[in-house]
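Technical note accompanying the year-one report. For the benefit of new consortium partners, we illustrate the data format agreed upon in the data management plan: each record pairs a sequence with a structure-token string. No post-processing was applied to the example shown here.
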Amino acid sequence: MAFFFEVLVTGLMVGIMYSLVALGFALIFKASDVFNMAQGDMSLLAGLALVGFLELNFPLWLALLCTIAIMTVLAYGTVFIVLKPLVARPPIMLFMATFGLAYMIQGIGQSIWGTQAKGLNLGIPDIPVTIGGLFLSTFDLTFGAVAGILVVILVWFFHKTRTGRALRAVSDDHEAALSVGIPLLKAWAVTWMIAGIVAVVAGIAWGTRMGVQFSISYIAYKALPVLIIGGLDSIMGVIIAGLVVGAGENLSEVFIGPYVGGGIQTFFPYLIALLVLYFKPYGLFGKEIIERV
């Protein structure tokens, strides 16, 4: 049982990092109905920028501030240069625009920082600690705590601040929000900026774990089942779904994988997503939309 719980907790910690990427998707989709395929590349850009500033001997706090500044510029540029001309156009055009944004980010990253993998060491030791008889990674526990604090801050922001309530109003009904004086594009820009900050945390987490390399952008594809299971427009849903996916794929790989030749981790999240889609097309926590036709 001790080994079972070690595998479970390790899976939960990985699931939290899946949730960080999925959270960026959910924030942008909830506020603007744009499915942002560049979210994984935003995490990549954040990791590359942070490593670049650290290589220039910036202190960590200053490197983080400069990285957040870059993500803020990216957010406002995306909204006012890329998305603004496409307002009121078919959603597929906005969706395809985010593909272009993803490749643009990759090209900029390659031009400035090159294509070689880079190490990111923040001084967090990846050594096992014993808690209640379980051997757990200090690294996983640290980023699990950071992700938990980030989620609490986001929930507080969206429910207790004036700006957060305005963003919720925009997500509920764009036209109603405009009618009461909430500027739509500025609300989108704030949402993309918040998603950029989430991408910074995700980029640091994955970059520290596996090195800052261009394969980080593909972590977004592991976040897609999390979105489907939790619901595209549910922040808490994607957090819970990330934990379910992380724990489920880890347990299935360890306890079922040896009997079927392994590889369950690669398809387990998508299998669960297909089952959820069959019974709950909007996800476990997503808002059902019924349109009159």
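Partners are asked to follow this layout when depositing records. The CA atoms of residues 105 and 111 lie 10 Å apart.
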